[in-house]
Amino acid sequence: MHIKKMDVDFYMKNYHNLILILYRYLILYQRTIYKMLMLKFIKKFIFPIICILCINPMSADNNSIEKNIGFRFNSANTLGKLDKTVIQNKSSLITSLKSYTDINEANINLSLVNSNKILLDNTYFQKSYRNSVIGFGLIDRNWSFSPKSSLILSPNAPPFKSIYLKFDIDNIAKDRWFSSLGATSLEIINGFLEGNENPNGSMLFGMRATINPSEKFHIEAMRISQWGGYGYSNDPSVILKTLFGDTNNGQNSNINQIAGLGFSFIPAKTSLPIRIYAQVIGEDEAGNLPSCLMHLAGSEWQGYLFGQESNIGIEFVDTRVGHTKHGFCGPNTAYNNTQYKYSNDGIVMGVPIDTEGKSIELFGNFKINSLLNTSFSSKKVLLNASNWNSHRLSDKSQNGWLHSASVSWAKSNFTISGNLNYQGFSMEKVNSYKGIGVGINSNIKF
Question: What is the distance, to the nearest Å, from the Cα of residue 187 to the centroid of all Cα atoms in its chain?
Answer without folding.
Answer: 12
